[in-house]
Amino acid sequence: MSRVQQGRFTADVASLGDEIVVFVIGMRINRPLKVAAWWPVFTAMPRMLRHLSDHPDKGLLGYQQSLAPLFLVQYWRSFEDLERFARDRDDPHLEAWRRFNARVNRSGDVGIWHETYRVRTDAVETIYGNMPVHGLAAAGSVPVRRGGDSAAARIGAAATDEPVLPPY
């Protein structure tokens, strides 16, 4: 179990440059009994994540995954890093993608999807209260600074007349 950072923290987005990429990817098992179709797709991502964790120079800043439903949120240093990883013959993605297309792409047995967002770091707001390092904070986290108690304050938005929630 990961160590809990007690208190309130935010991702250190100022250290990441002007932009990050948020990549969301998932799979849907349309025919659960066709294990031979979906199992290779299911097991390909952990291998890719191990490879990326072993090679931080590839540009993956962090990730968070869910098993129900099956999806993964990845944070990348740049779109160019993500694209380079996806197409590099020496990295594990390209071959897995080719096998998927050859074996199951048109069968309907397994569905896959992804969404890619280029995000200015000055438009990112995060909060982690009494949590282990999580999500974008994997790239670095800092304690919430004085005056940063609200999402609006942390993202630099104008204050509203809404009541302020007490810190948790």
TrEMBL record:
InterPro entries: Monooxy_af470. It comes from Terrabacter aeriphilus. This is DUF4188 domain-containing protein. Pfam families: Monooxy_af470-like.
